[in-house]
Amino acid sequence: MISNRFLNATDFLGFASSLSPLENEVKDTLRSKLYQKRYCKGELILESGTICKRICFIDSGLVKTFFYTDTREFIMRFFAEGNMFTVFDSFISQRPSAYGIMALEDTVITCLNYNDLEMLCQQHHVIETFYRKLLSMAAVNMMDRIGSNLEEKAHVAYHRFLKAHGMLLQRLSLADVASYLGITQVSLSRIRAMK
Is 162 exposed, middle or buried (0-12, 13-18, 19+ CB in 10 A)? Predict the structure, then answer.
């Protein structure tokens, strides 16, 4: 009988296999290290100032990575079901994170701990390949995010957001969209009113 602990592990495994095809033996070993967690809307998955000790796959729900300055919140990314997430700088260095992660909906995630991933990378080249490709994808996504913030005017950034994340719009608050774009809600309302 399969324990609830591994209920959606095939989704994590499917994602990993899409980056680096995993043999059945490797899948079984990886599956044995996965565990599931549930979070309620508004609950912190990672509090800033703590060390990020796991990499996660979203089975259902929606999360954001964010940080605060003295005056406001900045959202770096949204992750919905079918995506993997962590705070890579903290995860890799095992140092406290400047970012937090919060569930924006009731969320179920499948997790793999840092130490288990390190051990699996040492034992299985295909897991190391999966991890390398995941890091590469994260770096490319972050460079795109930084570049678009530096280069684009707010209305261009909003339309780019709609193109990339339009399917999430109904699931996000206007405050979170404005925070992601680095603008005020008033500015976002003006942009949305433009035809």
Answer: middle
